[in-house]
Amino acid sequence: MGVKPNVADEAAVAQAAVLISQRLDGRLAETSGVIEDLVAKGSPELTGDPSLLGLLHETVTANVDAYFSAIRHNIPVAEVAAPAVALEHSRRLAQRGVPVNSLVRGYRLGHSVALQLVLEEIRSAGLDPELSLDVLSTMSTLMFGYIDEMSQQVVAVYQAERERWLESRNAVRALRVREILSGESTDVDAMTTAIRYPLRRTHVAIVVWYPESGADRLTDTEGFIKHLTESLGVQGVPLFIPADSTTGWVWIPLPSAESSDVVEQIRGYAQGGEPWVAIGTPLPGVEGFRRSHQQALAAHRLAVASGTCRVSVAGDPGLSAAALLGGDLPSARAWVGEVLGPLARATAGDERLRETLRVFLRTGSSFKAAGEQLHFHVNTMKYRIQRAIERRGRPIAEDRLDVEIALLLCQWYGEAVLTPLSPGDE
Fold first, then answer.
1. Beta partners for 250?
2. CA 279, CA 299: separation in Å to the nearest integer?
3. Is 384 a residue whose pLDDT tops 70?
4. What pLDDT, on a 0 to 100 scale, did the predictor assign at position 260?
5. Do the Cβ atoms of 313 and 285 come closer than 8 Å?
6. How far is the C-alpha of 80 from the C-alpha of 67, rounded, in Å?
């Protein structure tokens, strides 16, 4: 004779599971952050640039919230639709050529750390041991079902997008270009024929993107590039390769004699347009094709991270160094705060002092030269430098290089590396 289920016990387990989910949901940002960190470290292909990292962050948060909602409202996992941002994340990975195994691995890693967080919360809740086991069983079963369902949905979207992407946008040409960028191909003439672009010329590489748009803007990007090259009056058709639905990689072939001022021409044209633009340095040959693109990508990463440089040029003084140093913004922000102290605060007054100190150090600590550049009297410069040092809290003689680097990061990344203001601060 079978044992009838204890309805009261089932209700107690369900109630306790809701309690645990509410406690974790109350710390949604912390919970999501722990999961995101493990996924990013275990599957770095998912964080190839700031836009992918942002999508990963929102995907993890949305999935955690959806899982807890399913527990609180007793929603069968088969009826839970994948969050829209999770589907867009999978589409973007498909467009970038990130292997689907990396996507699935990300969900498995997220599952493992989420289960550990649930277990820790159950332990800290002080439940009866038997009830704790039942709650863990219930929540882990639901979590497995949720991850399994989400994985199937995002993989289906990934595969559909990958097939669509490979059938469009000159996929073979894009593949050959990626081979050139990775250094896999050495036959310059064969690759010139394959991509229909003169690799032996001088090249200026550009990255063009629309950061606020989730729609396909590649047609707009191609139109922008067409009008840009017409305004430059260069001979030769530019090479355009879609990186994803909102970002394009571009190379413009140049005669060597015309490459000196082309960057400023591009900058001037781009400042009057809608898309964001990152520009590399004109360089010759296949190595120049690769290096100019690397520079444009670095400027692109900095612009995305700072959110302020709508037109960025790799050759601008300090930009390339700042791009190299800003690869880990949370660590960069902490370090800038340690070096500059209160001078790293995100206030208008501190910004003016930082700029004064940066120019002073760049001009060899000359009050006269810095004053001429900033249009200040020498005595005013001396006063402002003294104020900056006092604001920092210690002299700059012993760690001048650190101060200059920290000021460089502040100049290019702005609030992304500044110490945020507390409520009530001015």
1. 206, 240
2. 7
3. yes
4. 66
5. no
6. 9
**What are the two backbone dihedrals, phi and then psi, of residue 251, each rounded to the nearest 5 degrees?**
-130, 135
Residue type present at position 171: A
Contact 45, 131 (CB under 8 A): no
Q: Calculate the alpha carbon distances from 48 to 53, 76, 230, 231, 350 in Å.
A: 7, 34, 33, 33, 33
Do 176 and 191 meet the contact criterion of CB atoms below 8 Å apart? yes
Tens of pLDDT along 223-237? 899 899 888 887 788
Phi, psi of 313 (to 5 degrees): -125, 125
When pLDDT is averaged across residues 293-313 and rounded to a whole number, the result is 91
Question: What is the C-alpha separation between 36 and 42, in angstroms, rounded?
Answer: 10
Instruction: Please state the φ and ψ torsions of residue 277, each to the nearest 5 degrees.
Output: -135, 135
The torsion defined by the Cα of 411, 412, 415 and 418, in degrees rounded to 10, comes to: -60
Task: Please state, in angstroms and rounded to a whole number, the distance separating the CA atoms of residues 240 and 97.
Answer: 17
267, 313 contact by CB (below 8 A):
yes
CB contact at 8 A, 158 and 103 = yes
Max avg pLDDT among 18-22, 86-90, 174-178, 187-191: 86-90
The amino acid sitting at 339 is V
Q: How many CB atoms lie within 10 A of CB 8?
A: 8
* pLDDT band per the 50, 70, 90 thresholds, residue 168: low
Q: What percent of the chain has pLDDT over 90?
A: 37
162, amino acid identity: R
pTM of the model: 0.65
Tokens of 31: 């919970």
Give the whole-angstrom CA distance, residue 232 versus residue 8: 77
Q: State both tokens at 17.
A: 């599971």
Strand bridging mode 202-209 / 283-284: antiparallel
Which pair of structure tokens corresponds to residue 346?
Answer: 């995100």
Residue 5's pLDDT is 41
Buried b or exposed e, range 263-297, using 16+ CB within 10 angstroms: bebbeebbeeeebbbbbbbbbbebebbbbbbebbb
Residue 119 pLDDT class (50, 70, 90 cuts):
confident
Can you list the pairs that 342-349 forms with residues at least 24 positions away whose Cβ atoms lie under 8 Å? 342/391, 342/392, 342/393, 342/419, 343/388, 343/391, 343/392, 344/406, 344/410, 344/417, 344/418, 344/419, 345/418, 345/419, 345/421, 345/425, 346/415, 346/418, 346/419, 346/420, 346/421, 347/421, 347/425, 347/426
